[in-house]
Design a protein that fits this description.
Helix content: 25-40%
Strand content: 15-25%
Mean pLDDT: 92
Number of helices: 15
CATH class of the largest domain: Alpha Beta
Low-confidence stretches: 396-403
Largest sheet: 7 strands, mixed
Number of domains: 2
CATH superfamily of the largest domain: Alkaline Phosphatase, subunit A
Shape: globular
CATH architecture of the largest domain: 3-Layer(aba) Sandwich
Distance between the termini: 39 Å
């Protein structure tokens, strides 16, 4: 691999890789999934990183959904810069909900595209076609989805295919830069420590170990965590915001947009823990925010400007009010707009603050500047390209004991 000058992307500088770099996003993977799989003995590679390697707790972008976070990871900046703050936003000029799965909605260049333009060999493999279109923006390189390659969407095979293909391509063509992004099908269905979840992480672990043995610098993170959103009897805990606001203010005075909404309804029934409220009369904000804040089941209710500053959201694609439900609650519109019969198990979902903490793991020592205090999942490429000790063996073998993530008991 020839040494070239650093590449500037979205105001950050990235060193040219001295060995292949692989950044992997394990969709929906909170620490609990990794801990349980490691403790069960089915994920020896992940166990070695958790026990002896470099591991930290990181924050995902808010809303803690798939598209905003994947785009944050590949651009290295928050949604306020790249513009993707969910699957949908309300276009005020047309009063239509617009789906943001087209590259035209992306406002920032991706790191893989910038490196490919500079001559690097780049590969992106993702689970779903909806995300592939965004990840391929401006890219002169291979970008494929497991869905488009014929893998079943509602199956763990989708994610396993992503990592297996990545490991095969690393062994055969050794790309300079690779991004792999899986699906959260398993996490929506099964809790941490379940036999199904552990079986899935065993398959994932095997492919991650192959990537490690290739000699690549490997950074593993997640886009969001996952929480059970049910009562003790397994019934979904749902606040139907549109129904509530219509009763308070009358039909037509508000519009609730659920940014989790996508074609894959069997995952979550379009129910997540983040919602945007758009108002016909914005002067009602001062009345609605405290009224909503008094409801049980909500973590946070913020008016537009505060929400955009606090969570670095794009101002023109964020509602007049944003709502975050707590760890056991989701947000809907009207009951008749959510077909819960499509759910295959008790509801598990994400989107709020409760699903924001994610792991970030490295397969070799990372030398961090002293000023780095808070970790973001979208710093993954910066860590891999700027901070990895390329002269060291993988930390899995070195046993450095540098990990500073949540406590793990095995």
């Amino acid at each position: 691999m020839s040494r070239q000058c650093p590449i500037a992307v979205n105001g950050r500088e990235y060193q040219w890789p001295r060995r292949p770099v692989v950044v992997t996003c394990l969709d929906g993977s909170s620490f609990e999934y990794l801990f349980h799989a490691a403790a069960a003995g089915v994920a020896p590679f992940l166990r070695s990183l958790l026990k002896n390697g470099f591991v930290r707790a990181a924050e995902s972008a808010i809303p803690s959904f798939t598209n905003p976070n994947n785009l944050s990871i590949v651009t290295g900046v928050p949604p306020s810069r790249h513009g993707i703050a969910g699957n949908f936003f309300l276009d005020r000029e047309t009063n239509r909900a617009v789906m943001m799965n087209d590259p035209c909605f992306l406002r920032a260049e991706t790191i893989p595209a910038a490196f490919a333009r500079a001559g690097a060999k780049v590969v992106i493999i993702t689970a779903k076609e909806k995300l592939r279109r965004l990840l391929s923006a401006g890219l002169d390189g291979l970008c494929v989805s497991a869905e488009n390659e014929g893998q079943p969407v509602y199956s763990s095979i989708l994610s396993e295919h992503v990592l297996r293909r990545g490991a095969e391509l690393m062994a055969s063509t050794a790309p300079d830069l690779m991004y792999l992004s899986t699906s959260d099908y398993v996490q929506h269905l099964f809790p941490p420590g379940s036999s199904e979840a552990n079986q899935f992480y065993a398959a994932i672990d095997e492919q991650l170990a192959h990537l490690d043995r290739s000699g690549a610098t490997l950074v593993i993170t997640a886009d969001h965590g996952m929480s059970a959103k049910t009562d003790p009897d397994g019934r979904p805990r749902i606040i139907f915001l549109q129904q509530l606001l219509d009763a308070w203010l009358g039909t037509g005075n508000t519009r609730v947009i659920l940014p989790i909404t996508d074609p894959y309804v069997a995952h979550h029934g379009s129910l997540g823990s983040f919602a945007c409220i758009y108002l016909e009369d914005r002067s009602l904000t001062a009345e609605i925010v405290p009224r909503l804040s008094s409801l049980p089941g909500l973590d946070l209710v913020l008016e537009h400007d505060i929400a955009c500053r606090q969570f670095e959201l794009p101002e023109d694609r964020t509602g007049d009010i944003i709502v975050c439900a707590n760890h056991e609650t989701v947000l809907g519109t009207h009951p008749h707009e959510h077909d819960l019969s499509v759910l295959r198990s008790p509801l598990r979902s994400h989107g709020g603050l409760a699903e924001r903490e994610v792991p970030i793991l490295f397969n070799r020592r990372i030398r961090l500047p002293s000023q780095v205090k808070r970790f973001k999942n979208y710093d993954a490429f910066w860590f891999a390209l700027n901070c990895a000790d390329d002269k060291s063996d993988s930390v899995r073998l070195a046993g450095s004991g540098e990990g500073k993530g949540p406590e793990m008991t095995i």
